[in-house]
Each structure stands twice: as C-alpha cells, then as structure tokens.
Amino acid sequence: GMPEGNSVVGGGCLWVFDGHDEAVYDGTWQFFEFLSQLEQDTKWHKETGYFPVRQETYQALQDEGWFEDEPNHATAFDQILSGNDSPASQGVLLGGFVEIRDVVGVAIERALTEGTDAQNALDEVAEQSNQILTDYAAQIGE
User: Fold this and answer.
1) DSSP 8-state code for residue 14
2) For residue range 106-141, what is the model confidence (pLDDT) as tens digits?
3) Cα-flanking dihedrals φ and ψ of residue 25, to 5°?
4) pTM (2 decimals)?
C-alpha cells in the first residue's frame, strides 16, 4: 500500500493593515478579487506549485488534464485530499522545525550569495540543527 504521510500545507499570505483611507482598501479588495479569479489562480498554481485558493480552480485543472500531464503537481493534492487522518498525516513532527528551516534557509542564501562552499554550509546546518534538536529534547524532558 501507499506509505502513510502527507504534504505540509504552508506558503504565503497577504495582510491588510488598518489606518489607511477607503481608496486604499477599495484597491486592495480589487487586487484580492483579481488574484482569486479562476484564470489567475490557475496560472499561479501552474507557475509556482502552490495550492489554488478555489475548489473551482482545482476542478478546472483536473478537467483540462493538468494533473495527468504534470503528475508531480498532483502528489500534494492526492495526499491532502485523501482524508488520511493518522498521526503520520497531521503535520510536521519535528521539534524545532521552524528554527531548523531558518538555519537551512540562511545556509542556502550564504551558498548562493556569498559563495560559501556547499559542504561547509551543510556541515554548519547539521551542527546547528543537532543543537536545536538537543535543546528541544532537553526542553521536553527527553
């Protein structure tokens, strides 16, 4: 059978802060409406891999054969929409996940922008991540 597990839902979000005049909010609402249109939602998914924000978009992608042509894009949908509700599918089970993700991000950035040797960057990530895990284990009494 299929191994237990699931994709992690994450990604970006858009924020609107208070303190602006009505014209700013009207423009913001129009922009949000534009982003959520079927055409924009479809384009965003195809070009980024992010989940569409509308069920209608998912159905349109299915209907046009997108997932047959691009099976890798189907994986997360298949997992998340499978209804697999087990401990293995209920989110990241890594203590210090956010901190470790940040350490990895900094290392990638340093390798790409500062020319840090990839092996050195990975070694540093491993060292820092192990410390984060050690600290986490101590915090939860393991």
Assistant:
1) -
2) 999 999 999 989 999 999 999 999 999 999 999 888
3) -70, -35
4) 0.56
Query: Looking at this protein, which amino acid is placed at residue 50?
Result: Y
Range 127-133 contact pairs with CB under 8 angstroms and sequence separation of 24 or more: 128/100, 128/103, 129/96, 129/100, 129/103, 129/104, 132/96, 132/99, 132/100, 132/103, 133/95, 133/96, 133/100
Which tokens go with 115?
Answer: 């020319």
CA 108 to chain centroid, in Å, comes to 17
Q: Please list, in sequence order, all residues whose beta carbon lies within 8 angstroms of the beta carbon of residue 10, skipping any fewer than 6 positions away.
A: none
Furthest CA-CA distance within the chain? 56
DSSP per-residue codes, 71-133:
HHHHHHHHHHTTT--SGGGSS---TTHHHHHHHHHHHHHHHHHT---HHHHHHHHHHHHHHHH
Residue 86 to residue 68: CA distance in whole angstroms: 27
Q: State in Å, rounded, how far the first CA of the chain is from the last one.
A: 33
Distance CA 142, CA 129 (A): 17
CB-CB contact of 52 with 45 (8 Å): yes
